[in-house]
Design goal:
Distance between the termini: 7 Å
Number of strands: 7
Structural class: alpha/beta
Radius of gyration: 18 Å
Length: 239
């Protein structure tokens, strides 16, 4: 799941004959940092002589007693400022508990770009925790109408404005550098089960649609970074 930085943005125009395929280009220029994930643990190789083990905890404290009621909640963004009574030291202190358990990374799922996430990232940094947020499922298939499924799995126009909002509302510092607690951004959680659901059980059309969704969404995030002039150490992307 290494990612690249300088590469062509997703386009329907054909590539020049001597250009690498988009998927190959996406992987080619970020070989210095690789990420391998097994369960909730990951190894991030910064250089051949330095390996850090990430011990992650998935955080989604859905306040319901019956799983069926989770789909009825108006919000599942649990790292926004409004959820501070659960994660902050001024509330229940979930982040401190995660740190005290021996973890050094928090994996997140719900993400509403309209919300600020600066408070969560600040507290995670103070506790020595790194953060791995992800894009929500909303632009991919939950938005109606206008999801990626309505644009033949080209997700560029759906994802870019959302990631721009993420960058503006906590992901970046005033110097346009990534918040130092951010480590990995998940482009899409479990894409093989969603984009489309037949990506691994149907014919060749399924994997092609999944690849189109991931590459176009990745391009959208890179284009958002470019638009805002992001500088300094860059985070990794995965899916």
């Amino acid at each position: 799941q290494a990612s690249a930085r300088k590469r062509p943005f997703f386009s329907s125009a054909p590539l020049p004959a001597n250009s690498p395929a988009p998927a190959a280009a996406a992987m080619a220029l970020r070989s210095a940092r690789t990420l391998g994930v097994v369960g909730c643990a990951a190894f991030v190789r910064e250089a051949l002589s330095s390996t850090t083990m990430l011990k992650g905890v998935s955080y989604g404290p859905t306040p319901v007693l019956e799983p069926a009621k989770a789909s009825q909640m108006p919000e599942d963004d649990f790292f926004c400022d409004e959820a501070a009574p659960m994660w902050s030291s001024s509330g229940r202190g979930d982040l401190r508990t995660i740190r005290d358990m021996g973890a050094n990374l928090v994996r997140l799922y719900g993400n509403d770009p309209r919300n600020s996430h600066e408070g969560f990232l600040n507290e995670a940094d103070e506790l020595g925790l790194q953060v791995a947020p992800g894009m929500s499922d909303w632009p991919y298939y939950q938005k109606y109408p206008g999801s990626c499924k309505d644009t033949d799995f080209n997700c560029f126009t759906q994802v870019k404005p959302l990631y721009l909002d993420n960058l503006r509302k906590g992901f970046l510092t005033v110097e346009n550098r990534y918040h130092r607690s951010l480590r990995v951004m998940n482009i899409l959680n479990e894409p093989d089960l969603k984009m489309p659901p037949t990506a691994t059980t149907g014919g060749r059309d399924g994997p092609m649609k999944m690849a189109r969704a991931l590459i176009s969404a990745f391009d959208a995030m890179l284009d958002a970074e470019k638009e805002l002039g992001v500088t300094g150490p860059l985070i990794n992307f995965t899916a």
